[in-house]
Specification:
2 copies of one chain form a homodimer.
Chain A (H helix, E strand, L loop, with lengths): L2 E11 L8 E17 L3 E8 L11 H13 L4 E7 L10 H16 L6 H16 L7 H6 L2 E7 L2 E6 L5 E8 L5 H6 L4 E3 H20 L2 H7 L6 H4 L6 H11 L3 E4 L6 E6 L1 H16 L5 E7 L6 E2 L1
Parallel strand pairs in A: 3-4
Antiparallel strand pairs in A: 1-2, 1-12, 2-4, 2-5, 5-6, 7-10, 7-11, 9-10
Family (chains A, B): Belongs to the GHMP kinase family. Homoserine kinase subfamily.
InterPro entries (chains A, B): GHMP_kinase_C_dom (IPR013750), GHMP_kinase_C_sf (IPR036554), GHMP_kinase_N_dom (IPR006204), Homoserine_kinase (IPR000870), Ribosomal_Su5_D2-typ_SF (IPR020568), Ribsml_uS5_D2-typ_fold_subgr (IPR014721)
Function (chains A, B): Catalyzes the ATP-dependent phosphorylation of L-homoserine to L-homoserine phosphate.
């Protein structure tokens, strides 16, 4: 195999209660990447369509991730990367993570799969560090593993693949405003009330249980963030109105996707997810802020060869 | 049915990472209680053997719990309670909880089971409040439901029953010192570092996952408490030495049982659990503090009619 074309999906990190550890993978929406073996050694970004991003390998999230793998594998060839960027950078649905994990996934395939998914996550985290300043895995893991993932720990890196209820659909609204990950991090307190932390870890445990027993109602009750959302929701206009409307109409839960500004809702069944999408579309139409919405199934495969 | 005799088990709350929400039920060690219907209306504690505890209904944990149920059910009879107390009060393995949950379980049986286990938990929490000053359910839930439980929330009360790996054994060491629950609560900070809370909720989620997929190794890695143990372990002489020895010999994990002073370890298989017991027995023999140890399977049934 000399070249490979992949679909690298958007992802939702945090999932309300699981700040920095939980994530799930979206279907339909994602970047496309074409990676080609070359005789010239090195990693070369040869084309980026969709958004204006740096072509220099060391300045590009996909480039840095690919380099991390490349320097470890030391193959007797190089790689050219073409990126067809569909996920807007800074949207909060894992744009940098899609580039980072897509690059390492594709090169691993072309090299005959010398690395497992956890090792690929480690390489892609180098790209995330370039994008956000910290090596987090909560978007990388669902992109590479698919479905719901839990980052048990980053040192050593330990990713758990959680089950995904089959009728679960996500609705996303992306208000076209900028929320910098660094700003969204800076707004958080260093210390939190113990009683709130207890609520949060009880919800994380309950969410994992709900996924295992396929209990949609319980899942909905666990999608509650008493720690991060009260701060970060201030950065997203009409967040409360969107959340209230989504839940009133029948969404299981609704929260901030990653560090925002995108908002996600989870619903049982496509019909309900579409109703939720229509409802939050109506709510946001009144804000005067540009936005788009979409609804999709949870993607249990992660990155796909196309 | 006019009378019933039950075994009400000891329990381990918190389970390292799950402060205030996780618990599991022990086998073999527990109180026995005989509850008898009477024509005289009211709740009467007629006998307590084993430890010196108040006979007055309103001052007794079992009495208060029974009264809470009794006042709700308003039956056309009364109940006499005999308590054969085997679990030492203040040991940290759910002594008050065994009395509280045993009383409500038995009376519910004699009344033809008008209440479900969650409702019984609510009544028994009144007894816990008498014992510790707060209506917590992390010992009550495993006593009534058996196995591992997660208190999703107390308002409204929502108890989740988690799966129990079949080869899981607990080892308990009870140093005969007094650690008051109130003191063990007071030593905790009101605020905790966000980064520690993240570690904790990732462990809670991972522990629930480990129970579902029967992964003993992962379970061991989740038995880690970065929040409460650093404070409370100061109240238990040689805690660190016991923990280190238990894990070195092969225990999956080791931590404080409830608010202490008892220490629990979990092991895969009875043979390993017994080796762990012998090891920590040796460690504690050097302290000059009286103690006892025991090893048992996880009790997946909870309270049993005998």
């Amino acid at each position: 195999m000399k070249d490979i074309k992949i679909f690298s999906p958007a992802t939702v990190a945090n999932v309300s209660c699981g700040f920095d550890v939980l994530g799930f993978c979206l279907d339909t929406v994602g970047d496309e990447m074409l990676i080609r073996k070359t005789e010239n050694k090195g990693i070369f970004i040869t084309k980026i369509e969709g958004y204006d991003l740096p072509l220099k390998t060391e300045d590009n999230v996909a480039g840095v991730s690919a380099l991390a793998l490349y320097e470890d594998a030391k193959p007797n060839c190089g790689f050219e990367i073409e990126i067809y960027k569909k996920i807007k950078p800074g949207s909060g649905i894992g744009s940098s993570s899609a580039s980072a994990s897509g690059a390492v996934y594709a090169i691993n395939e072309l090299l005959g799969k010398p690395y497992n998914k956890t090792q690929l996550t480690r390489f892609a985290m180098k790209g995330e560090a370039l994008a956000s300043g910290s090596e987090h895995a909560d978007n990388i893991a669902p992109a590479l593993f698919g479905g719901f993932t839990l980052v048990k720990s980053t040192t050593p890196l330990d990713i758990l693949q959680l089950p995904t209820p089959s009728e679960l659909y996500a609705t996303i609204i992306h208000p076209q405003i900028e929320v910098k990950t660094s700003e969204a991090r800076a707004i958080l307190p260093n210390h939190i009330p113990l009683k709130d932390a207890i609520t949060q870890w009880s919800n994380v445990g309950s969410l994992v249980h709900a996924l295992h027993i396929n209990d949609y109602e319980l899942l909905g009750k666990t999608l509650n963030d008493v720690i991060v959302e009260p701060y970060r929701s201030q950065l997203i206009p009409s967040f409360d109105a969107v959340k209230k409307a989504a839940i009133s109409i029948g969404a299981l839960g609704c929260g901030i996707s990653g560090s925002g500004p995108s908002i996600f809702a989870l619903s049982k069944g496509q019909k309900m997810a579409t109703r939720v999408e229509n409802t939050i579309h109506d709510v946001y139409s009144k804000t005067g802020i540009d936005f788009y919405t979409f609804t999709c199934k949870i993607n249990t495969e992660g990155i796909k060869v196309i």
